[in-house]
């Protein structure tokens, strides 16, 4: 039937594939965009540190501004719930020790992310 | 009776069918041209009524305006580069014109740059010419031709040639396709006869190929002329006429006068002058290519 | 194949490959700049992307309203293509019918092709402002709704339809519009394809007219958005080149899908009407 030939033509197949990919991506984004950030703070030796402060910086045009702070629990884990940016920085501090500011780039705003590497505290120089 | 009522009906149909297109052309081509001509003889600004200016705008353009002459000269240089582009395209077309394996792929690769938006082409070449991160400076320095990077788009000497190179890159594919279809329309038996007569390759080229390509060459030349009078997008995004007015073309100057300085009357005079020049150049091209090659497809 | 012929063949291929490299180099350079993790304004630049990542595209997505620009471009192009098909087909058909003054009408239209768009921008702007169509989709598409070159493409295609078919249709009592739709158009698919390609390309890539006509950011089309981005962010960021890639992608995709129609269309419609 002519309809089958029309359906197989590249002018139909290519837009359908693009539409399907876009739809699938949107579904993925909706399912994973809760603004969740989880990580862990360790000291120079690798022991988890409880009670350290972790600061979240979000992207604001050309600078990073501080958005929220939280403390790690006894196991050294921290979590942020309301990140809505796609370009963030995290820094931990505990007393006089600081971790370097690490930049995390997300694929979409408020993407849920569990940090693979912990934040290492080091004595402030 | 039936005959004439059918005629009348047909006439009415023709009128209805032609009306919308004609309306667009009258409103957006003929009327603006006439308006420009009238406006060029007036002093007018949008909030005040028009007053007659006679030849004042034109005399200002010709006597007091250095930028006009610079822009004109730049446009002519741009124009002069088009035959070079056409010659290059002819070379590529000759190379591709055969049952060479992969000819279609080569054709697509060369033509790929033509359907792009000129704004994107300008930005791409802006990067290519960059002093630090640009490919052109990198290659030149690696090969050893220059020691220090050249700021192509900021130098008075190199800016216009740089834009010409970018334009050639974009337009080469188009010229190639036009010349290719011209080449493929040449009957092979002419070549056979010449070969039998013992004519060497270069004679076959100059005596058979070039004359038979006259319509295609004329078309390319006309497009090249139109191109240099309308290369607004490229110049505006790449250099905006700079540095100074080194890459200012007539069309960018008109835009700046009309929408930058809001001197609609003066810009109208510039437009009329540019249009007259376009007609003159097209006529010259017509004569140069043999006089009877006005076959615009 | 003789040795000499083989050498000539290899030389041909080598030259063509060199030309291809030169023609493709700018594409590659921009793609590399959009994906590389190094500072693109450092000397010496690397030939391959370093620490390649796609985060520039994410930055661009949140920095400029790309979907909005894309939508604007699509809508304007759709209006232009649809308008072109309808207006050019009926005008081309009208030119095949005998009527008084047909020849002078053809001459008039042909001479209109000599008027380039640039010669009309100032009054066209003033007229569009009077009509109240500044900053609107219709205003963006209006000058492009009909082109003389495309009318003549249709006319040439309709002239090639055998008279016997037309006469048979007339005897059957079909009106002119029906003749156009039932007899002429189905036999003119190349002309339709050429029309679509030409009007799409001219409206999609159009920069000067949207530059003059649009007043607000959310009516901008893709070329305009691209140019504005350049002046807005200057050229201190690689996000610009990610934007270029995003802008070029739809056009390139359409081109690659309809290559032969493009090449044929752009060469027959060479002089921009």
Q: Can you offer a commentary on this structure?
A:
The complex is a heterotrimer of chains A (125), B (297) and C (273). In chain A, 24% of the residues lie in helices and 38% in strands. Chain A has helices at residues 2-8, 10-32; strands spanning 37-42, 53-60, 63-71, 77-80, 87-94, 97-98, 102-105, 113-114, 119-120, 122-123. In chain A, the strands form 2 sheets. In chain A, strands 2, 3, 5, 6, 7 and 10 form a 6-stranded antiparallel beta sheet that branches. In chain A, strands 1, 4, 8 and 9 form a 4-stranded mixed beta sheet that branches. The longest helix of chain A is centred in the first third of the chain and has 23 residues, at 10-32. Chain B is mainly α. Helices cover 72% and strands 3% of the residues of chain B. A two-stranded antiparallel sheet of chain B has the order 1-2. In chain B, a hairpin with a 2-residue loop joins strand 1 and strand 2. With 273 residues, chain C is mainly alpha-helical. Chain C has a single domain (64-268), classed as MetI-like (MetI-like fold, Orthogonal Bundle). Chain C is 70% helix and 0% strand. Chain C has 14 helices and no strands. Chains in contact: A-C, B-C.
List the helices and strands and how they pair.
The complex is a heterotrimer of chains A (125), B (297) and C (273).
Chain A: H1 2-8, H2 10-32, E1 37-42, E2 53-60, E3 63-71, E4 77-80, E5 87-94, E6 97-98, E7 102-105, E8 113-114, E9 119-120, E10 122-123
Chain B: H1 2-40, E1 42-45, E2 48-52, H2 56-64, H3 66-96, H4 103-111, H5 118-128, H6 135-143, H7 159-184, H8 188-196, H9 201-212, H10 214-229, H11 232-238, H12 250-260, H13 264-288
Helix pairs in contact in B: 1-13, 3-7, 3-10, 4-7, 5-7, 5-11, 7-10, 10-13, 12-13
Chain C: H1 3-35, H2 55-63, H3 66-94, H4 102-112, H5 121-130, H6 137-141, H7 148-159, H8 163-171, H9 176-184, H10 189-204, H11 208-213, H12 222-233, H13 239-257, H14 259-268
């Amino acid at each position: 039937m002519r309809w089958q030939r029309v359906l197989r033509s590249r002018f139909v197949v290519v837009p359908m594939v693009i539409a399907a990919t876009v739809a699938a991506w949107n579904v993925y984004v909706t399912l994973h965009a809760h603004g969740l950030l989880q990580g862990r703070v360790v000291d120079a030796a690798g022991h988890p540190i409880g009670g350290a402060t972790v600061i979240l910086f979000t992207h604001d045009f050309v600078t990073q501004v501080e958005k929220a702070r939280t403390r790690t629990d006894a196991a050294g884990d921290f979590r942020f719930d309301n990140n809505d940016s796609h370009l963030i920085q995290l820094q931990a501090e505990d007393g006089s020790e600081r971790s370097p500011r690490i930049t995390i780039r997300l694929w979409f705003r408020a993407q849920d992310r569990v940090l693979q590497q912990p934040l290492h505290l080091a004595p402030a120089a | 009776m039936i005959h004439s009522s059918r005629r009348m009906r047909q006439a009415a149909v023709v009128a209805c069918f032609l009306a919308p297109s004609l309306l667009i052309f009258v409103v957006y081509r003929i009327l603006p041209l006439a308006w420009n001509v009238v406006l060029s003889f007036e002093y007018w600004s949008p909030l005040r009524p028009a007053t007659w200016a006679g030849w004042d705008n034109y005399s200002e353009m010709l006597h007091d305006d250095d930028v006009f002459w610079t822009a004109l000269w730049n446009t002519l240089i741009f124009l002069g580069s088009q035959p070079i582009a056409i010659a290059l395209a002819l070379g590529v077309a000759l190379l591709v014109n055969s049952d060479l394996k992969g000819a279609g792929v080569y054709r697509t690769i060369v033509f790929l740059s033509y359907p792009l938006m000129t704004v994107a082409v300008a930005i791409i070449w802006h990067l290519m010419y960059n002093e630090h991160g640009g490919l052109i400076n990198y290659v030149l320095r690696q090969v050893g031709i220059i020691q220090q990077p050249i700021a192509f788009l900021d130098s008075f000497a190199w800016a216009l040639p740089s834009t010409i190179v970018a334009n050639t890159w974009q337009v080469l594919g188009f010229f190639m396709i036009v010349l290719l279809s011209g080449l493929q329309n040449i009957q092979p038996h002419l070549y056979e006869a010449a070969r039998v007569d013992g004519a060497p390759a270069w004679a076959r080229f100059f005596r058979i190929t070039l004359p038979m390509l006259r319509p295609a060459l004329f078309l390319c030349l006309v497009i090249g002329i139109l191109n240099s009078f309308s290369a607004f997008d490229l110049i505006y995004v790449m250099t905006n006429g700079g540095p100074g007015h080194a890459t200012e073309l007539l069309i960018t100057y008109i835009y700046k006068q009309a929408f930058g300085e809001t001197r609609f009357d003066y810009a109208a005079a510039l437009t009329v002058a540019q249009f007259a020049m376009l007609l003159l150049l097209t006529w010259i091209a017509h004569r140069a290519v043999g006089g009877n090659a006005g076959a615009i497809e | 194949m003789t040795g000499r012929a083989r050498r000539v063949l290899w030389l041909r291929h080598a030259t063509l490959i060199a030309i291809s490299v030169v023609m493709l180099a700018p594409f590659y350079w921009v793609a590399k700049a959009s994906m590389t993790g190094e500072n693109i304004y450092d000397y010496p630049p690397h030939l391959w992307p370093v620490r390649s990542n796609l985060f520039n595209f994410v930055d661009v997505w949140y920095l400029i309203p790309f979907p909005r620009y894309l939508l604007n471009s699509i809508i304007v192009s759709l209006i232009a293509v649809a308008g072109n098909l309808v207006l050019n087909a009926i005008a081309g058909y009208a030119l095949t019918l005998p009527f008084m003054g047909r020849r002078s009408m053809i001459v008039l239209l042909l001479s209109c092709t000599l008027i380039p768009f640039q010669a009309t921008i100032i009054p066209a702007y003033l007229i569009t402002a009077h009509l109240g169509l500044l900053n609107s989709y219709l205003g963006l598409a209006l000058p492009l709704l009909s082109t003389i070159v495309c009318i003549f493409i249709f006319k040439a295609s309709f002239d090639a339809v055998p008279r016997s078919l037309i006469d048979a249709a007339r005897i059957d009592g079909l009106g002119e519009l029906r003749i156009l739709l039932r007899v002429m158009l189905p036999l003119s698919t190349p002309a339709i394809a050429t029309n679509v390609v030409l009007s799409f390309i001219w409206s999609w890539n159009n920069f000067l007219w949207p530059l003059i006509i649009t007043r607000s950011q959310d009516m901008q089309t893709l070329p305009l958005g691209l140019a504005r981005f350049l002046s807005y962010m200057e050229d201190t960021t690689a996000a610009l080149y990610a934007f270029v890639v995003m802008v070029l992608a739809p056009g390139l995709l359409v081109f690659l899908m309809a290559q032969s129609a493009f090449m044929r269309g752009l060469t027959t419609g060479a002089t921009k009407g």
